[in-house]
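Annotators were shown the component list below and the corresponding predicted structure, then asked to write short factual statements about the assembly.
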Amino acid sequence: MTRPDQPSKFKAAVVGGTGYGGAELIRMLLAHPSVALARVSSIDQVGQPLESVHLSMTDTGLTFEEIPLADAADGVDVVFLGLPHKVSSTLAPEIEPLDAKVIDLSGDFRLRSVEDYKTYYGEDHPHPEHLDGRWQFGLPELYRDEIAQARRVSSPGCFATTIMLALVPLAQAGLLKGPVQVVASTGSSGSGAYAKAGTHHPIRVNNLKSYKHLNHQHTPEIRRILGEAMERGGVKTDYALHFMPRSAPLARGILSTSFVRLEDSVTDEQIDEVFRSFYSDSAFVRVHGAGSRTAEVVAIKGSMWVDLSWVISEPDGLGGRQLAIDTALDNLVKGGAGQAVQSMNLMLGLPEREGIDAPAMWP
Amino acid sequence: MTRPDQPSKFKAAVVGGTGYGGAELIRMLLAHPSVALARVSSIDQVGQPLESVHLSMTDTGLTFEEIPLADAADGVDVVFLGLPHKVSSTLAPEIEPLDAKVIDLSGDFRLRSVEDYKTYYGEDHPHPEHLDGRWQFGLPELYRDEIAQARRVSSPGCFATTIMLALVPLAQAGLLKGPVQVVASTGSSGSGAYAKAGTHHPIRVNNLKSYKHLNHQHTPEIRRILGEAMERGGVKTDYALHFMPRSAPLARGILSTSFVRLEDSVTDEQIDEVFRSFYSDSAFVRVHGAGSRTAEVVAIKGSMWVDLSWVISEPDGLGGRQLAIDTALDNLVKGGAGQAVQSMNLMLGLPEREGIDAPAMWP
Amino acid sequence: MTRPDQPSKFKAAVVGGTGYGGAELIRMLLAHPSVALARVSSIDQVGQPLESVHLSMTDTGLTFEEIPLADAADGVDVVFLGLPHKVSSTLAPEIEPLDAKVIDLSGDFRLRSVEDYKTYYGEDHPHPEHLDGRWQFGLPELYRDEIAQARRVSSPGCFATTIMLALVPLAQAGLLKGPVQVVASTGSSGSGAYAKAGTHHPIRVNNLKSYKHLNHQHTPEIRRILGEAMERGGVKTDYALHFMPRSAPLARGILSTSFVRLEDSVTDEQIDEVFRSFYSDSAFVRVHGAGSRTAEVVAIKGSMWVDLSWVISEPDGLGGRQLAIDTALDNLVKGGAGQAVQSMNLMLGLPEREGIDAPAMWP
Amino acid sequence: MTRPDQPSKFKAAVVGGTGYGGAELIRMLLAHPSVALARVSSIDQVGQPLESVHLSMTDTGLTFEEIPLADAADGVDVVFLGLPHKVSSTLAPEIEPLDAKVIDLSGDFRLRSVEDYKTYYGEDHPHPEHLDGRWQFGLPELYRDEIAQARRVSSPGCFATTIMLALVPLAQAGLLKGPVQVVASTGSSGSGAYAKAGTHHPIRVNNLKSYKHLNHQHTPEIRRILGEAMERGGVKTDYALHFMPRSAPLARGILSTSFVRLEDSVTDEQIDEVFRSFYSDSAFVRVHGAGSRTAEVVAIKGSMWVDLSWVISEPDGLGGRQLAIDTALDNLVKGGAGQAVQSMNLMLGLPEREGIDAPAMWP
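Structure shown to annotators:
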């Protein structure tokens, strides 16, 4: 599988390709019918064939190259940045002049508040002017048209995507009120490709634990987007988001449960309508609804699909009903590289599902 | 390891010993310094040595016997019932006349409401008079003295124990107000020893999902005990419990996260004091508190220990602070057989930790 | 994703589509660029959409149909039989008159010896004349041309494929001599989609064990093919195959280690040449050789790729050197449905890798 | 659980207590009825309570101390060295003068050949005179009496124990002839407490692979002991050991399969007699024999028990029968710390099983 010139295809580059996100980007771009992967840069493994790091690959014909961003972007239509948080942002001045469209997978361009950035990422943003709106947030379910027009897309975080897909329809409908409690559990691939204590197999394989308690860095990006969803819906409701992330003993997948209080008067049909109408033209969200299938990780791992289900309690004597929404997705696909490719499809005018609509494997 | 007469020891019998709960009871009783396991009855595997079913055991000198309850209880000091829900209750008339103390591990004698029983177990209780209080609820952290005096103890459910240990101190202190949201994830041993779809390895090993959404049968027993904790504290607060159980891909352990709203005026120190004072003489609860260790399953699996930790948000602009409490325990030990043995120790006047205070294995 | 008429595509049917093999066949056929999946029959789940059983799928536009084989095969170019052992064979008279090409995934048409069939499958073959050679054995690495000409293909077993790919090159080269010892471990999906004791999660997740000790039903099919490889190589050597299957706690993948004695005079280069020349035009076998990468399941799970590596001891003082060959593949893909599609590609004159050359996911 | 003076108990110290082996030693010594754990030294985590590293422990009353070996050994009856390979050996001069009995868990004193040490551990032994026999090899099944008399015991490796228990009876009986092939798979705890690439959860949880192919450092210690078993049996047979280690995706446990050729004339009864008589007074080996239970990890994890089973082929036409022996044990217990405590029991004149005879947990 060499990479010959394919003049009729768009060309893409991956900058930072040795991690799990990079591996997924490469996997999807190599298989994409309308896009050719031109090159992959990195700062380690330089000169090695891709398949010597990503053992899953075969004869890619590509090696990791250590080259400046401008050279990586030379002659390509789209550049993916698969760099760690706080590294992407340092490249802002080099990104600015690029002709190529750019999709960043880090957290560095997702926020609009320099204070939030500092609070959650622990440092001042080196180029805070990049939080001014020049980066389009890459959640196609909310911003399909904007992404299609964008030159710079900041792709959402894995937990953030999982939770936003549960809450955005409610926010837009004016139903997000009061304290909102979320527990979301992630597989270990979310911690990246380098071994560390939290992903040491003898511990992780027998463990369930919370971490970054009520303090995860995806919280401000969720809050920002919920606010924009309210604006879009022409509503303004008071709510507070309390998110407890958890680690779980599997490699891939996130399951989130979000608790939202409804007034007694809100009906089951109303909630059903909110979710079904919001996702009526969604490319990848499968709305199961109450009493039908439940969202589960095994059904979506390795794929772009998102499962969404919910349950509503009877009025509980405290003036409301409890809504609990479950969403499940693959943290590296819809929660990562795949969602970035979905944005790329939109930015290049390609069908939204092109090249990324395979089912999960069963089991 | 034959079972000779040990006249100086108390004698125990296990009725229904082929499941995982039975295995744990047998394991702990065989090793108990003050109690001898006299016999184990069952309706299947009759005549087989215990070690032919529980492959972990060696030369127990005991076989599964199919005998009436009265015979199983004959000459022993304590009988453990390790039977399925809706089977224990049918034995109520046979339990009544027994001289031996009885500890039941099913859900059949945990409630005080026949309506709740029917709602959550799907059938009328065959002997509803047994829900009148004659069975002491076996949560030693709340009822140590009562258990020590009891002749009949109904041991709590695994999820229920995990969640009650998070919420009972708050209930007793008058701090349990408003909607309370709980997500608790369990290992697969909670589903019992017989293979079924939800514990089919190819699916379970890659899965996270919710089930019995806001509708788990442990909910009414938690509510009952929270009410009694309020009475004990001389308080009465309005709250509603919304519990989402989850299955997780490990064999043992439960982690629960419970969200409780606090008023702005409640201080960190106040919460710290509530938990620390409640558990100051607790035999097995390790209170880690905010900002210290977090509750995690790997630290307690296979043991009686319970880890409890919490975090409190700053005032969130909605008139309150969000408290999130995590508890972790082993569903088959502190959440099952081990807790029953803890009650037995109290009932027989033995030290509460005797025979059951081993640490977890690491890892 | 409806299934419109696609007149330029070949048409395929799957008979017996509710198991894991069926799920993989459906997944690959739905995505195949040159073949359309026309229908899926089954005896259970009749009338249900495919995606209600294979939760990984979305809007297939197909339901499980209970129809006779002749109707399932009506108007299609190729029929896959995804039926249990001892069920496929009963359909032999119905298969005979079909115009469509047929690929059977069971063990029922893999052998040439009625005695072996009875010994390993426990029953007389109901149509022993079908063991006469009318079914081509579907191992493309050995029979590419024969498969391309065949109307009936019997696709190999998962363990058999893993082990044959290690041993066939040696057999053909006349190097397979003396006792050959094999240990191969499989993931739990090899046991099928229905829950049973051996795949009960609480046990399987913590277990390693052997089963069908030196007695697995794939043994005779391996022996048959090794014999044919010798004939092809114009050699005849005495050997005996001793295969110990093992179950391992993961969902997918097989790793086999095969021990073959070499004479002292056999050189490393000679073995290297045997494997590299045999697989020089192989579509999916990656030959890593001694001292390079080792075969490992994580690198191939979910894909068609096979990793092959080996090590040779120094002369060990007993007149020989010990060769140990490792092969790894996915039991449901190259060891199952994917290999059947590989045969289909050859039978239909399509490129051998078409539609099935995706890399594994990493991780 | 403070550590008061317990004058009637023996006293023990652990040197190097922060790893998994150290954790198991501490767990077993804290619970031992006749031995008190006096102190635990380490070079990291100094000053921390044991339970801050081994989260499974509670109120041990002990902290990690950084003290010279002589001080650690001061006033205690037995010292356990839980240090890495190539660290224990550097302490040889300090060990020499100690009055306390010493049990070393590293590989540094297991061999009798300085060449083997250099070959397999990569360095010259710093004190090669310590390979002269002054350290008793700590395999109680072979050396019970010698251990009881020993002042210095070198405890066997985990793989080595698993494989020796399969092969030693055959070696002693003169039945170990020709090439012997072994595949043994280990859980991830065998790699120690520090995170590394091979135990990175996202990879390990989906992987099976071989490593240190035919070259594992336990090989020479197995060969040494097999030779001594032959001497004890008054036999001398030619054989060669070829051992392929594997990593498996579980935390604890080893399963080994060993292939030994038997002459046609060897009967099933003869093999049965060899194993049963050898282990007739064994403290922890459960001999299941052919056609009965198979050795499996889930039955022994967390315990001292060893399961041993085997199968013998019919004469295979090559002048022999193939014997395949499976053994299963817990790498950290019978394959590590527990076996060291078993030696300690013998050295102190205590019952061999004292304090370490608990069953595994089920499941």
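Statements collected:
1. The longest strand of chain B covers residues 254-263.
2. Chain B touches chain A through 51 residues (CB under 8 Å).
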